[in-house]
Amino acid sequence: MSLTLSELQKLSIKAALNKNWHEAIEHNLQILSQDESNLDARLRLGISYLQLEDFKNAKKYYSQVLEIDPINKIALEKMKFVKEKKIQEFVVPDTDKLLKEPGNSIEASLEILTKGITSEKFSFAEELTIKIKDKAISVHKNDQKQSLINYLPDAIAKAILKAIGKKGEIDVKFIGGKDKKIKVIITSSISVFPSEKQDIRPYVKSSDDSDIPDMGEMVTDTEDKVKETDENSRSEEEEESQSDKE
């Protein structure tokens, strides 16, 4: 029985984290056989071949990425090592941008508008692209067509524009989803988002099977969270007012 894209993505990431490069290559090639436009699989193939000192194949896949996305930061950086035939020490990816930090990050739930694309087409922590037109900000998948996911809520877009105006850096990553609904985390290098009382928690745990995030269980409604927070705040204010009267 063939594995789904989601299953293959989890296996390929686990193999890379454990530095099992041949296994990672096998899984990523299977992904491309099912989804030819998968940019992340090509990036993972590039790093796998680079670690095996197979510079020819590393160049092949990074070149394919740059044909689709000419300004892809990861591919441009890795191509320098390929050209110099050097191996860059592989470290477990930094998860700082997957931390929910009050003021510097916010989550958003989006419904995918483009036909033929579901949450299964994404890999955990996949980097997404934003495009700005007037005051609207759209989120896109980094595939060949730069497929539109949806537009960010006005309040989030306004905060992002503020950060960009102050020369801040914005990062958008996929953290979960089910069917046509996905959840993203938006991180800014400048504090521009509402600060809520919350625990700072990483979305990545370990490379063990049981700890790989279940993307189907990670969709919640951001608006409900905001509403719940507002209701809690009003309840606290009413209790304090009542206490003062007494």
- What's the story with the biggest beta sheet? 6 strands, antiparallel
The CATH architecture of the largest domain is: 2-Layer Sandwich
- The number of helical runs is 7
CATH class descriptor name of the largest domain? Alpha Beta
| Low-confidence runs | 197-230
> Number of domains in the coordinates?
2
Share in β-strands: 15-25%
> Over all CA atoms, what is the radius of gyration?
20 Å
Mean pLDDT over all positions: 77
What structural class should be given to the helix and strand makeup? Answer: alpha+beta
Overview features:
single chain; 246 residues; alpha+beta; Serine Threonine Protein Phosphatase 5, Tetratricopeptide repeat; Alpha-Beta Plaits; 2 domains; 6-stranded antiparallel β-sheet; 7 helices; globular
Give an account of the 3D structure.
This protein has 246 residues and is α+β, with helices and mostly antiparallel strands. It has two domains: 5-83, Tetratricopeptide repeat domain (Serine Threonine Protein Phosphatase 5, Tetratricopeptide repeat, Alpha Horseshoe); 96-222, Alpha-Beta Plaits, CATH 3.30.70. The chain contains seven helices and six strands. A six-stranded antiparallel β-sheet has the order 1-6-5-2-3-4, with helices on one face. Helix 2 packs antiparallel against helix 3 and helix 3 (39-51) packs antiparallel against helix 4 (55-68).
